[in-house]
Amino acid sequence: MTQPSGIDSNSPSALTVHVDLAERSYDIQICSNQLGAVGSSITDWLDNRLGTQTGQRKALIVTDRNVAAHANVVVHSLAEAGWNAELVKLEPGEKTKSLPVISGLYERMVEMNADRRTVVVAVGGGVIGDAAGFLAATYNRGVPFVQVPTTLLSDVDSSVGGKVGVNLAAAKNLIGSFYQPLGVFIDTSVLTTLPDRDYRSGLAEVVKYGVILDAEFFEFLEQNVAGINSREPSVLRHMIARSCQLKADVVKEDEYERTGLRAVLNYGHTFAHAFEALAGYGELLHGEAVAIGMLYASRLAEKRGLIDAELTARQKNLLEQIGSVIVLPDPSAYSVDQILSKMRLDKKTVGGELRFVLPTKLGNVTTFADVPEFDVSAVITECAAA
Ligand SMILES: NC(=O)c1ccc[n+]([C@@H]2O[C@H](COP(=O)([O-])OP(=O)(O)OC[C@H]3O[C@@H](n4cnc5c(N)ncnc54)[C@H](O)[C@@H]3O)[C@@H](O)[C@H]2O)c1
Ligand SMILES: [Zn+2]
Questions:
Q1: How far is Cα of residue 222 from the mean position of the Cα atoms in its chain?
Q2: Which residues contact 174 (CB under 8 A, 6 or more apart)?
Q3: Long-range contacts of 107-110 (CB under 8 A, 24+ apart)
Q4: What is the distance between the terminal CA atoms of the chain, rounded to a whole angstrom?
Q5: Of 49, 54, 230, 327, whose CA is between 20 and 30 Å from 179?
Q6: Nearest residue to 167 (alpha-carbon basis) of 282, 296, 19
Q7: Could you give the angle at which helices 309-321 and 196-213 cross, rounded to 10 degrees?
Q8: Ligand 1 within 6 A of 198 CB?
């Protein structure tokens, strides 16, 4: 993490995470109360990538109605920097990640005479980032893309790694691509309007990074519970920057999810995906399911003799202190068999064989394909009774 070049003049505390992906490399700028400077960052990013050109720069800002106030700041900032910036407000929610919505956005791009230098800017959570990213990846075989994430989940997860896409009725995220942005601009002040439940849900992925990759970061979280809960800007900046750096380091080794290295990011997710599917999408937020799933996976690691009970207890304590959901709302609603069969359907399963990412110590995980099903069943039963 370093100080950024574009916005450091009045923010000594702003941070930059460099995502190192050969010619697709880009920077994530993390600051507070500087959204008004986003226009000059985007200008620099575009000129550095495509060279300076005469003529007016153009951008389509894609947002949802809940974050339109933040998107307006981005529009004004670009206008001040001399851009022609158009705004499109979509409906909030997962349904927006769909081909008909993308089709409407293609039309909008045609109407504004978009060309290879027209930048698509996503201002929103993971839904807007995934949808606008897919638009940028496919319009005219790819136009420049910038993310301005507004949820904690999109700060630390969906805006790092280049996955963009939309849902089909058959499955979530079935249509998509890997497409890296020109840059990502994170201003922690936009999180002040984020509903508590969404904030807590995003925190689960933050805790995950500590468990899987960085014991020191996990300790930082334990020591900064008050700052996390009050959304203290300096705590947020460090927490977000470290999370982005950790994910970026993994993505760099396995950009296209081919070698299996990226799988470490799935800690807690084999259980979580089953819980989400059984609860009905939207009932249990993704991060809520991940928090619960991590505790199940950690119990499974205990059962396999990989860790002792203290490591599970530390995760549980931290999650509890930061207000995460740590048990299923109604554990008796699903049988062990229902959970197991949903896990077998997970797209990350290989040939129906269950794979688990399990901790071996704080800051380290390994993927196991040989976990006996009776251990998994026992953990499901025990956790439901706890
Ligand atoms: N591309 C990836 O690698 C990746 C990774 C994880 C998740 N995702 C995707 O991300 C999506 C979930 O993202 P999400 O959790 O950010 O959900 P989201 O985009 O639906 O945002 C959650 C809610 O918060 C509102 N909101 C967003 N920012 C706000 C703010 N600052 N103030 C007030 N309200 C705000 C939104 O309008 C929405 O109602 C899913 O579609 C998931 O598939 C993608
Ligand atoms: Zn996740």
A1: 21
A2: 165, 167, 168
A3: 108/60, 109/60, 109/135, 109/139, 109/140, 109/143
A4: 40
A5: 54
A6: 282
A7: 150
A8: yes
210 lies in the same domain as 180: no
Among 193, 216, 245, where does a domain finish?
193
* 172 and 256 assigned to the same domain: no
Whose CA is closest to atom 42 on ligand 1?
126
- Residues 178, 208: one domain? no
Output the domain CATH number for residue 129. Answer: 3.40.50.1970
CA angle 196-198-204, nearest 5°? Answer: 105
Q: What is the pLDDT of residue 172?
A: 87
Catalytic residue list contains 237: no
Residue with tokens 């229902």: 338
What's the pLDDT tens digit per position in 62-84? 999 999 999 999 999 999 999 99
In a domain, 10, yes or no: no
pLDDT in tens, 31-53: 999 999 999 999 999 999 998 87
Q: Are residues 164 and 281 in the same domain?
A: no
Q: Does the beta carbon of 194 lie inside 6 Å of ligand 1?
A: yes
Q: Which ligand is nearest to the CA of 163?
A: 1
Return the CATH number at 261: 1.20.1090.10
What is the number of structural domains in the chain?
A: 2
Cut 0.85: pTM above it:
yes
Q: For residue 214, give the nearest of 254, 169, 177, 250 by alpha carbon.
A: 250
Segments forming the whole domain that contains residue 313: 196-385
Q: Which amino acid is at 335?
A: S
Do residue 30 and residue 61 come from a single domain? yes
Q: Of 193, 213, 242, which residue constitutes the final position of a domain? A: 193
Options 58, 70, 89, 163, the catalytic residue:
163
In a domain, residue 9? The reply is: no
For residue 94, being part of any structural domain is answered with yes
Residue 232: name the closest of 184, 288, 201, 191 by CA. Answer: 191
